[in-house]
Amino acid sequence: MYAAVRKLFFADCRCEGGDGSKTYEELFARLDSNKDGRVDVSELKAGLAAMGIRTGKGAAQKIISSGDQDKDEGLDFSEFTKYLKEHEKKLRLTFKSLDKNNDGRIDFMEVKQSLADLGLDISKEEAEKILNSIDVDGTMTVDWNEWREHFLFNPATNLQEIIRYWKHSTVLDIGDSLAIPDEFTEEEKTTGLWWKQLSAGAMAGAVSRTGTAPLDRMKVFMQVHSSKSNKISLVGGFKQMLKEGGLMSLWRGNGINVLKIAPETAIKFMAYERYKKMFASEPGKVKTHERFMAGSLAGATAQTAIYPMEVLKTRLCLRKTGQYSGMFDCAKKIMKKEGVKAFYKGYIPNIIGIIPYAGIDLAVYESLKNLWLSRYAKDTANPGILVLLGCGTVSSSCGQLASYPLALIRTRMQAQASVEGSEQLPMNLMVKKILEKEGFFGLYRGIVPNFMKVIPAVSISYVVYEYMRSGLGIQK
Question: Which of 63, 99, 105 is nearest to 84 (CA)?
Fold first, then answer.
């Protein structure tokens, strides 16, 4: 029944066919059961089921949402036709990207290789299982017609969904900006959704950093001032800050910390796209190690451009009441007293710190993602809120733990000139001094408030990101 219906309705249903409009019209008439000139979700579900066309979970709702331009919760004929034509074009692009030897057919090795390019390693048996679900004629290969007929009424392919749903550096902001940038699908790039998602992520980061600013300032305070001879507890540190500057002093340095999100995000994204093209062994294909190299270099490029703002943030976090009237006054006084070089103090440990952070964050996240996809992904690659937050939090925390000693060295070097009686030491001598006087754990001063802010930062950034997505019209 299913094969017969597919042959009847899809044999001539092509974008370029002369009678394509007629075929779409006949299909629309069959789906529009109440003849009101609109196809809603229930009609689409019932109509496709009656014709024996299998769709994924939630596919009907996604089709209506994607094509419904006038937001009347249904598709008229023009919207219906436009959706099918545009979706078929996307399917053609995906098919071509999978057909690596350009023979017009996809075999299990091409499926396996394409998933490997996205960082998802599957066995031969799993690749054959995927192919079997699409293959109609039993040849263990899929041609364009089989591919198109299988996916025409399913609004996303698994490959696109993996990229779409498994974003974490765009969505989650825990205060550090060293993670590898997220991938965007070709659809997101061509439709302009990428800049909306980056904008939503930037706003989420701004709110998240503001909400956790007191803990961030405590981290910086303990990194610079805490030692074996001057032990600072969490409660004692907050009491000291409140006594010196009042409640608002807990947010010192937050303004510039928020201000640097926009330029850093923009520079990192543009640099990442450029580096990806340089490192990609195949045009349009980026393997995990190539993504790591491109992402690390993009992070280094962005950090180089905005690093003076990082120095200003540290100095403003540590300032005493009345020391600076604002960020411009701070910059002016640093320039006058210490010169231009002061704005790049701690630059080397900061750049070196990108490698362990980005590498471990990427490796842990990809491992957790692959584990979930191999065990639990059935109808969709969408992991849901809790899985996404959990994987992102664990991977980012592991990256922070590995790179934290370098972050502490960077902060101390940035603050040296502003701390009374502090020696102006290079990175190697500073590490040696800390290990001699405080031992290995001296490199982890301030780690407690740093990890305390992770869960609230992740929660705030995700909630704000979802609100921004809704406000900017980004569909889930």
Answer: 63
Calpha distance 146→455 (Å, rounded): 46
Query: Measured between alpha carbons, how far is 447 from 424 in angstroms, rounded to an integer?
Result: 24
Nearest to 116 by CA among 289, 297, 234: 289
Tokens of residue 154, six digits? 């399913």
102-156, pLDDT tens digit by residue? 788 888 787 777 666 555 556 677 677 767 766 667 777 878 777 777 666 655 4
CB 171 within 8 A of CB 388: yes
Alpha-carbon radius of gyration of the chain? 27
pLDDT bracket for residue 418 (50, 70, 90): confident
**Residue-wise pLDDT tens digits, 322-381:** 889 889 999 999 999 999 999 999 999 999 998 888 888 878 887 887 777 767 765 566
**Which own/partner contact pairs does 465-470 have at CB distance under 8 Å and 24+ positions apart?**
465/170, 465/171, 465/200, 465/201, 465/203, 465/204, 468/199, 468/200, 468/203, 468/204, 469/196, 469/197, 469/200
Tokens 């299998």 label which residue?
54
DSSP E strands in 43-137: the ranges are 105-106
Average pLDDT over all residues of the chain = 79
Residues 6+ apart with CB under 8 A from 227: 437, 438, 442, 445
Give the span between the Cα atoms of 244 and 249, in whole angstroms.
Answer: 8
Please name the residue that has the structure tokens 């196809």.
39
Helices (H) and strands (E) in the chain, counts: 22, 2
DSSP states of 414-475 as a string?
HHGGGSTT-----HHHHHHHHHHHH-GGGGGTTHHHHHHTHHHHHHHHHHHHHHHHHHTT--
Could you give the CA distance from residue 415 to residue 381 in angstroms, rounded to a whole number? 45
Nearest to 366 by CA among 358, 376, 356: 358
The DSSP element (H or E) to which 77 belongs, if any, is: helix 77-98
Confidence of residue 242 (pLDDT cuts 50, 70, 90): very high
Backbone angles phi, psi at 285, to 5 degrees: -120, 125
- Plot region of 138 (φ>0 → left; ψ -120 to 50 → alpha; else → beta): left
Q: Which two tokens stand for residue 168?
A: 């974490």
